[in-house]
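Sample intake — GST C-terminal domain-containing protein
Collected from: Gossypium mustelinum
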Amino acid sequence: MHCISLPSSHLLLHSPAKTTLKLACHVSPRMFFNDSATNNNSGSTNGFSLIKNVSKLLWGASLPPGILISTVRTAWTSTWQIMMSQLAPSDPSGAYTRPFSKFRLNPTAATTKLHLYVGLPCPWAHRTLIVRALKGLEEAVPVSVAGHGLDGSWEFKDVPDKDNDILVPTMDRVNRCRNLKEVYRLRKGGYDGRATVPMLWDVEKKEVVCNESYDIIEFFNSGLNELAQHPGLDLSPVELKEEIEEWNRVIYPNVNNGVYRCGFAQSQEAYDVAVSGLFSTLDRIDDHLGSSRYLCGDRLTLADICLFTTLIRFDLVYNVLFKCTKKKLFEYTNLHAYMRDIYQIPKVAATCNFLEIMDGYYRMLFPLNPGSIRPVMPSVSEHEFLSRPSKRESMSSVGKRVQHVL
């Protein structure tokens, strides 16, 4: 699982359909009325004022004629379908089908000089940051954090870290590339496919080691213990592997990918199926967590990490933008407390940059939010609220096991 960069894990996809992008760029009305509008705010204001004046002259206070509305609607629907076909490939029913990861992990082929590339909005990349932090691999596996570019690609930029409390976008700290696509092209033989995050890079061989998130977190959990500051922390113990896999088989299609299947559905039928599966699964998990601190009992596992990165984005993004509106996560008593419990584990909160997450979805997923307006952050998603005691440690026979290991 991974995020890709728009023009087509957002979510941000590289698309070869450049003509589609040109079409999207040419719909700005100010280009037709005022060339200076592209250079200053007053020009933009004058351009839109002219549009309003022309509209009043033609139609007065009434709506535009029905034929204009239907024509614009038809044109927008066609354009939307073109963009969505690149952003979110679908099957004949209109259901979103996530592309497979191109580069799978071969641990024996990797050197110990590794570099991690991530994007903060992406939940798949987020899981690698959390496992890296919990295992204490920050020095062993340095990270470059890509931000969202104006064209939807993952690009590198130097953002001042004012308080050092959370991760922010950075420059490419190892290859000095401008964007992630350039990094992929550095590999032997080049690469012109989708530039996805997370991506693990072999610094010595200049090669992509892996861009499949679950491969990476399993590798971070057990494959680099000789370099980890917390080698004793095992997020996938042998005795729980089968249970972890069972939870992943439920959570991945219905929750992790389920929210995308809701947001990227291209038919009512596809949306109805996806949203039903999502909320029935959340109901089931909430009920389970009423008597279990974590998914697999007392111990935090990789299954919890994978669920957490979707839950932390739920009220911020998915509830609104992806039409997952049946319930807010806050309405699930056990799930929300469980999410806060994990958020409060040392180092986890530092991986959660909420403004970057919201910008990555609301401002870059143009087909879903053409106005690029970022809504106000829900109060239940603010750090102060998430830091309230979850009281879930009382459910565990080992208390704050993870915190003690760290």
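Post-analysis note: The chain has 15 helices and five strands.
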